[in-house]
Amino acid sequence: MYFTSDNAVGAAPEILDAIIAANAGALPSYGAEPMMAAVEATIAGIFETDCRVFLVSTGTAANALALASLSPPWGAVFCHRFAHIEVDECGAPEFFGGGLKLALLDGAEGKIDPSGLRDALRATGAGGVHQVQPAVLSLTNVTEAGALYSADELSVLAAMARDAGCAVHLDGTRFANALVAADASPADMSWRAGVDVLCLGATKNGALAAEAVIFFNPQRQADRIAEFEYRRKRGGHLISKSRMLSSQMAAYLKDDLWLSLARRANSAATRLADGLRAIDGVAIENSVDANMLFVHLPVAVHRALLAEGARYYLEPPSQTDDGDGHRVRVRLVASFSTTESEIDAFLAIASGA
Amino acid sequence: MYFTSDNAVGAAPEILDAIIAANAGALPSYGAEPMMAAVEATIAGIFETDCRVFLVSTGTAANALALASLSPPWGAVFCHRFAHIEVDECGAPEFFGGGLKLALLDGAEGKIDPSGLRDALRATGAGGVHQVQPAVLSLTNVTEAGALYSADELSVLAAMARDAGCAVHLDGTRFANALVAADASPADMSWRAGVDVLCLGATKNGALAAEAVIFFNPQRQADRIAEFEYRRKRGGHLISKSRMLSSQMAAYLKDDLWLSLARRANSAATRLADGLRAIDGVAIENSVDANMLFVHLPVAVHRALLAEGARYYLEPPSQTDDGDGHRVRVRLVASFSTTESEIDAFLAIASGA
Amino acid sequence: MYFTSDNAVGAAPEILDAIIAANAGALPSYGAEPMMAAVEATIAGIFETDCRVFLVSTGTAANALALASLSPPWGAVFCHRFAHIEVDECGAPEFFGGGLKLALLDGAEGKIDPSGLRDALRATGAGGVHQVQPAVLSLTNVTEAGALYSADELSVLAAMARDAGCAVHLDGTRFANALVAADASPADMSWRAGVDVLCLGATKNGALAAEAVIFFNPQRQADRIAEFEYRRKRGGHLISKSRMLSSQMAAYLKDDLWLSLARRANSAATRLADGLRAIDGVAIENSVDANMLFVHLPVAVHRALLAEGARYYLEPPSQTDDGDGHRVRVRLVASFSTTESEIDAFLAIASGA
Amino acid sequence: MYFTSDNAVGAAPEILDAIIAANAGALPSYGAEPMMAAVEATIAGIFETDCRVFLVSTGTAANALALASLSPPWGAVFCHRFAHIEVDECGAPEFFGGGLKLALLDGAEGKIDPSGLRDALRATGAGGVHQVQPAVLSLTNVTEAGALYSADELSVLAAMARDAGCAVHLDGTRFANALVAADASPADMSWRAGVDVLCLGATKNGALAAEAVIFFNPQRQADRIAEFEYRRKRGGHLISKSRMLSSQMAAYLKDDLWLSLARRANSAATRLADGLRAIDGVAIENSVDANMLFVHLPVAVHRALLAEGARYYLEPPSQTDDGDGHRVRVRLVASFSTTESEIDAFLAIASGA
Fold first, then answer.
1. Where are the domain boundaries for CATH 3.40.640.10 in chain D?
2. Smallest Cα–Cα separation from C322: which of C347, C349, C300?
3. pLDDT digit string, tens, across residues C260-290
4. May I ask the CATH architecture of the domain A259-352?
5. Closest-CA residue in chain D for B27?
6. Which among C88, C316, C319 has the least Cβ separation from residue D130?
7. What is the β-pairing status of strands A167-172 and A133-140?
8. pTM, entire model
9. CATH topology for the A13-257 domain
């Protein structure tokens, strides 16, 4: 009953097998192995467009390197105040970006409110050289609050950003979960909606450690792409035995594995939500678009779950287990490996408490 | 009728004379001139405590260098969202600080609301290594919105910060204006209230280009002080003919010149405010604690003033001269050199329009 | 016949098996898995001293993060001009170190000449705040030119550095190869010789992607260690499914696997060297202390080897395959997986040409 | 008898007068004062070409900001190992340049040896993404060792650099001294020789604190120029009362004052050299092209001079006043304000000792 995060389990078997299969023999290093070119071609096919792809081993590296390529040091990166780049990367974007600034926006369930973005784009940098300048809009789909942007919603925000001269970055740590939730195509949920660079996560959805940074429209982004390679190397993120990354990504995308894994995670979350809704005193805060739930649990339920070995994170303001004295606020994340029996056991404890 | 800023005029005559007087002869460079030691001793006397003092030529340099000495690159610097370090320094703190993060707080008239600070201190960095850590509280007195913190108000905020392990920085661009407004001692308005480092402005109050960075309690801050010297040099802010700076600062502080100049500026603002309050349709937004007014002017008044040569800045949301169609929001700043006749001329135009 | 680098092959079977074995089940992430604590304890045992250990996935990350923890931005890091940190990391030390400076030293076979170090330590920073200050001595063992420092040689250099107030960093990408070549203990070749931080490589000696940063004397280095964790996170080098790293390192060190693998690589290099010495017109430039050879090959031999599928790098000044018209200068690197038959095939071609 | 540096005295009277004259009245700030546009036009006239000009208050700021605009963080800046940017700026280029690397070259009297540059340009970055890439050639004229590059010598080096895709920066701290020594035109000694950005010093030649960063061919360098403005601001180098800088530079260039001042300094150095050559046991090391001498003084002479109040710097290896036991190596710098009687007094002591 491990619901802390979708990174608490290891790799999906197909991906582990791919690492094993790729291990034999001598190969060019540093991304020059043939499998890397194949991954790039696969991604171009899936996204129905030309692109350049780089692999790294963490989402923080993917996001920070991408943003550094999209923004000058005096740029403002607009993002939701819940965004991973703001909350969970210990300032990696500022570090890789030479001291750039994150400009925080509001909106329900981690989705940026368009009118807030409009105001921010207008106000930022209006003082000329005295101020940082609008540079990037960074979106996250699925959001950190578990909600889904539709392709149309992404398009509206991206269009505003582009009108203001900004590039558009999409933190797609849970991009596969978003795709299956939206039942939309990868292209519609990324470049057709105005995204310049997608950080396509795999680690949280079945890989061991692999993320793809995808530059769409590579001709137009040639300078950024050239920069990216140097930034990745000097960031220590150019893996020598790079087959370790390309083999994972190849398996992840093969035969729609990524979508199957995400579908499992999302379904598990739905099952969990359905069960929790039936329990007296439990309230689910979000709409459970994908694989995350934000839930208010009666303290007694929470204690029973902990006692039986369930694991999940308390969310602010519940820094301690007594929250407001009656209920605690918790985050539950389902993954590709969450089983029905695990969920049912969890629900049994919760309803029994 | 130049009310754009207190940096629109040159130096006060006493300060210009000091630059001239210091020009003759050969002297050690880079701060080793005898006058620099004298300035440090003078400041120690005025502030009634031991301290280390460094001079630089801009307020942005003073603030950014100070913050870099107080915060690690993974630190959060808490400041009001109107703070100069956030709004007007093009990311200098992030640049000098190796990618640190400004954490923005709210509060009326540019003064940080204590309960907001309390919440922010508690929430920031709670996620451990994934998050930037509380490092500095940066206050501004007089605030960018023209308001005054009392010594007690400063103490309350500083105490919260220190309890959370933060250093306290005071942007004192208009520190002299604050002192005369509060009728308080330099010590009470700085280190006795909990300030570790004061950036004491002179440029906006009669100097040509001179700011002092004052480290109180130098024994305790020995490491920061040692760092500061290297940071200043590699920031290009160690002036070779450093008499240029020390002569200004010496004159600025001599015979309470700094207080006299600030008193003139504050009085001019009061006179201006009194006059404007009497004009129909004009509304003053702030309490005019010091030398700045935020004023809503009827468009007709605004146009008449512009036509007669008055100069000042429009403030958001008045990016154009028609604001909401009826009134524009403007900032008026009085300086040591603002004359009564200048004010009266301004008022005459305004009341005639 | 792949002699390009010891990173051209995949993982040793024991290490791959460990990754597979560690894949099952839910675990704490980000280095909190129990296996990470075990790795730290194992390393403490092997090195006969208390230490703190952090794992990352590349040698460039290990070195650059370590140096950033040991040097301020205004520090000089003394290293050989052939050092990996100077030649092969695209400025990673300067990037992570906030703009620190590498100060280059000379010496035969990549080993720093002590008298050169003495002079450099004396001269550097003598101009006070105008100059970067001595901060770190960075050594590499086995050197990039394939030579071995003895424990005594390390001690002499490290003592000079410490007398000048510098920390000592050891790039141990090929530390295991050095150990077996020197037949010395890990402790003697590191902290007993004066090393503060060892970057212990595994990737080039049988791991897939794993390097350990080892801080000796952790009480004395508590501040650096605390910093390191933030630097690693904001560098994007804190792997979520960290079992990926700890499982590799555990297997690497278990039952002296690391030494066995290095012994194989060194032996292979010896066999290769012995065979090449017998071939007319071939000259080996270095003393082949470990697993690297720098060899001058007649052009005809070089062409025959290429034609038969041998792979290795040309070294400056041989940017093209005709070098000085008669011989080319090449680097040959043996790895744990180099076989006797591979070597013998290579030698047969070379002697037949 | 102050021969420590050409920054030991204050401003030339004409420049001090200009500061005074510019002090009156309200003006736009931050470089928007009319005098700044006039300075730019004057410089365009003197250099016979279109250009963009920015003023800052220190040479370190000018150099570091210029280099940051010319090089990416993964760039190599080629310079002589005696260059101010390497020896005397405490890593400012690395700081402003986001961790760029200075690649050091040799050559007599601080002048880069062309064959050394050719080799370095060929070798640097040949390893692709693993290495920093050739970005800038930084020249200094007059060199830090007091020697003059002719226009032809500059052209040869600049052409090599441009062929390798590098920009060319000229540290012109003593550019006026070079001009009068070479009897060449400003254009021939800068852009016609291939210089992209000239840092034109004034501080060491009669200003109080003013340096111009001149971008030639502004159309081609439009991106760099746009960047420069943000870099200057966030570096804290955009002076609010910018008349302080523009008035100095205007006076400096008016009626060839800069050339007159430099001529005085160079003549004083010649007189000093002529006198010293006649003294037994004194040896002048350099050719005294401009205003600097590197001299070996018998210890007795040195002690007599010190005792009589002469001031100058000991140069390595003479860290103490007994050098090799017989002679000390010293640097003597003449300035615009050095008088004949000062020189004659110095010579009288030296010859009497």
1. 13-257
2. C300
3. 999 999 999 999 999 999 999 999 999 999 9
4. Alpha-Beta Complex (3.90)
5. D8
6. C88
7. parallel
8. 0.97
9. Aspartate Aminotransferase; domain 2 (3.40.640)
